[in-house]
Automatic annotation (TrEMBL):
Protein name from the UniProt record: DELLA protein
Upper classification of the organism: Eukaryota, Viridiplantae, Streptophyta, Embryophyta, Tracheophyta
PROSITE patterns: GRAS
Keyword tags: Transcription, Transcription regulation
Family stated for the protein in its record: Belongs to the GRAS family.
Source organism: Lactuca saligna (Willowleaf lettuce)
Amino acid sequence: MNNPPSHVRITGVGESKQDLIETGARLSGFAEALNLEFEFHPLHKMLYDATGGALRDFFRLIRSTNPSVVVMAEQESEHNDAVLEKRVSNSLMYYSAILTVSILCFHYKWWRSMAELGGFRSVEISERGVSQSQMILKMYDHPFGPNSFKVEKQQQRRVSDGGAAAGVTLSWSDQPLYTVSAWVPSDVAGSSSAYQQAAA
């Protein structure tokens, strides 16, 4: 990034208070190593209800604060399919991968629709961002072999942005586990290109 920020403020939202505390500590340590002034504000909040109304309202609340960029990280469990057999099948595949690797949310497509209803649009993930993710992955020892995990772009065809890659997915043995995506307010002109560096 040509003009790095002098100060970064992050509000982390999640259902696990402990995860938020640990995330804040890791980010603070990373910012300190970069000599970057940093604030982390944890917000412990349950975002699930049967209709998705709570999550839509939450995205609208975030939108009202006019954030520079919103980053979402979600588990690729896809347990909310309308067909029972598919929910069971997806759950078996997902949790067999999770238990084997040893770690409930919604699939990326569902999150995307909620974010768009809340007034956001996704930012294309750069090749540099993917390369950095792959480099970080190689820093860890994997008991199931170096090729058991992989990081790939999440390709989503959308009319609004021409089908650009909208996220980075961590998979194990071809089973998606986590997807990270970046979002900006949908009515900010030129924000897609302006925040591609942020998504990197």
